[in-house]
Amino acid sequence: MSAASEYPLGALSGRRLSPEDVEAMAEAAHWAPSIHNSQPWRFHRQPDGLTISEDPARALPVLDPQGRERVISCGAAVLNARVAMRARGLAPAVELLPDPARPDLVAVLRAVGTHRPTEEDLVLHRAIPVRRTHRRVYRSHLVAEGDLLELRRAAAAEGARLCVADAEMRRRLAHLLRRAVRTQAADPELRGEVERWIRRAGLPAAVDGIPQESLGTSPYPVDSLVHGAYRGLPDPGGIEEEMSRSTVLVISTRGDSRYDWVVAGMALQRMLLVATSTGLVATFADQALQDPQLRPEVAEIAGILGRPQVMLRVGRAVVDAPPTPRRPLSDILD
């Protein structure tokens, strides 16, 4: 059941929460993945819950001019907060984009009663702090059919669809990725924007962005970032080789509104938590979706009737990826 319909928000009175409950929700939300670990959200305490708002001040206007990936990031934070509520024995009511006069307000989460945590609730909650974006070489890209079925169910539970690319899809998607990465690599403004979110060794400890040790140990597409340290264009066969042996997933939604972007973020994060709980890791391969001219081609290749929102590679890691930093909760929780 999707978060927006889990409980009708106006039908039940809220339950007053302790400061510890609200902080646990915010802490879980803060562990969500975000575009280049920009953490583009703000949290506001409520007597019975938490609101999650978009923070446009942490935008990447060159790479993400519409804010689509920023809103997807906030949707992932909403999912984490809801998981934390259920794991703490609270029945959540969630309303997405509740106030047209406040477009930055992504979601209101309220406790409307008690809830007996299920084993699934607890498994998802345990996965929140250990989930990583894994940009390194994978030990194996083989994913069992049973695991893929669970990932599909996770996306569907939040109102999205998950496509698992077959060999021909991967070949054609690799071609689009090569076109997209060449375009990005040739754009100094875009590379400069990405570089501003990379925290190089020797600099003061960061609270956001991507630490150098979290970058890939191989060039694109394993790294998945085109940044200032990028050395030359990828080998013409490199992307095809990597994609040919990858498990490639595409998350899509029916439409392409801000609501759809929030839904995509919630579906993405639920899928990532399920993947983490089964020992899988993932990295983003979104360059073709960041190009408005190529995004419709992704939909055509993947047979998607709606709009593709996120593309990932999934597999099993050689070594664990280090955690990326987070800003102090006091900086984002009012």
Taking the sheet with the most strands, its summary is: 5 strands, antiparallel
- Sequence stretches where pLDDT stays below 50 over 5 or more residues: 1-5, 7-11
Q: What is the distance, rounded to the nearest whole angstrom, between the alpha carbons of the first and last residues?
A: 30 Å
**Portion in helices:** 25-40%
* Highest-level CATH class of the largest domain: Alpha Beta
Structural class by secondary-structure content: alpha+beta
Rg, rounded, reads 19 Å
Taken in chain order, the helices and strands follow as HEEHEEHEHEHHEEHEHEHEH
β-strand amount: 15-25%
The number of helical runs is 10
Tell me the layout of helices and strands.
Layout (H helix, E strand, L loop, with lengths): L18 H12 L10 E6 L2 E6 L13 H20 L2 E7 L8 E10 L4 H9 L10 E3 L4 H13 L3 E4 L2 H19 L2 H8 L2 E2 L10 E2 L26 H7 L2 E7 L4 H20 L3 E4 L10 H8 L4 E11 L11 H4 L2
Parallel strand pairs: 7-8
Antiparallel strand pairs: 1-2, 2-4, 3-4, 5-11, 6-9, 9-11, 10-11
Helix pairs in contact: 1-2, 2-3, 2-8, 3-8, 4-8, 5-7, 5-9
